[in-house]
UniProtKB/TrEMBL annotation:
GO biological process annotation, one example: response to lead ion
Annotated ranges, domain HTH arsR-type: 4-98
Annotated signal sequence range: none
MF terms (GO), sorted A to Z: cadmium ion sensor activity; DNA binding; DNA-binding transcription factor activity; lead ion binding
Name listed for the protein in its UniProt record: Metalloregulator ArsR/SmtB family transcription factor
Lineage summary: Bacteria, Bacillati, Actinomycetota, Actinomycetes, Mycobacteriales
PANTHER family: HTH-TYPE TRANSCRIPTIONAL REGULATOR CMTR (PTHR39168:SF2), TRANSCRIPTIONAL REGULATOR-RELATED (PTHR39168)
Amino acid sequence: MGTVVTAQRDALTRFGYALSDSTRTQVLLRLRHGAAYPADLAVTIGVSRQALSNHLACLRGCGLVVAVPVGRRSRYELADSRIGHALDDLLGLVLAVDPSCCPDSGDQGCC
């Protein structure tokens, strides 16, 4: 397998891993609307700050989010605006393929 194909495979695998957890998915979906502080994300998503911290570390490791220092705090945002567009496209595709898959599922996941 060529280097480019391997890099592409690894990138999609990281993206899939990030989306495999409903909390991480909620974080990504929230950040597509703009940057947020961890404490606000924890409240919005309904998880502890410690749990959120672990998920943010995972998303940073996957290269999907970045921490931007703001004074003594860090604000999180998508590493690239195209990630938000990809999430919108992926969500649209999933719902187009099977519109009954996720009716009002919130963070429950599909199928």
